[in-house]
Amino acid sequence: QVQVVESGGGLVQTGGSLRLSCTVSGLTFSEHAMGWFRQAPGKEREGVSFISWYGSTIAYTDSVKGRFTTSRDNAKNMLYLQMNSLKPEDTAMYYCAAKRRETTYYNAYDLSPNSGYSYWGQGTQVTVSS
Fold first, then answer.
1. Diameter of the chain by CA atoms?
2. Three-state secondary-structure class, residue 63
3. Is the CB of residue 124 less than 8 Å from the CB of residue 94?
């Protein structure tokens, strides 16, 4: 049984930082590409970052470039999202998701939640106060 569990969300002031973590079990983590997604109330789920199965390819949506950093530790089955200089518009539920490396496109489509992500967590709430 595959389990994807996010943690690290919370309430932070504008300009603050948070580090999200995602632990994955029940699959071969090193054979899966990973993505971070977010969904604000009334909005569609959007891709935040993508990291390929070995970490050699990383992509970010434009609105977080230079502020967010994603990384992974295949030895620990962990995915991370370091979020700095947070803004109120970053407020959302954040999800991590996994897809088999064979479904990696190595382009912006990997940021789409419809690009083959099979396993999703329940999310962790990030709220940035102004």
1. 41
2. helix
3. yes
Q: What are residue 54's phi and psi, to 5 degrees?
A: -105, 0
Residues in CB range of 8: below 8 A, 6 or more apart: 18, 19, 20, 21, 124
Closest CA to 107 of 16, 26, 33: 33
pLDDT digits (tens, 9 = 90+) for 18-59: 999 999 999 999 999 999 999 999 999 999 999 999 999 999
| Nearby residues of 130 by Cβ (< 8 Å), 6 or more positions away | 14, 88
Q: How many CB atoms lie within 10 A of CB 29?
A: 20
> By C-alpha distance, which of 59, 71, 76 is closest to 24?
76
Structure tokens at 120: 């999703």
- Say if CB 111 and CB 45 are below 8 A apart: no
Write out the DSSP string of 101-125: GGG--SSGGGGSTTSS--EE---EE
Q: Are 121 and 96 in contact (CB under 8 A)?
A: yes
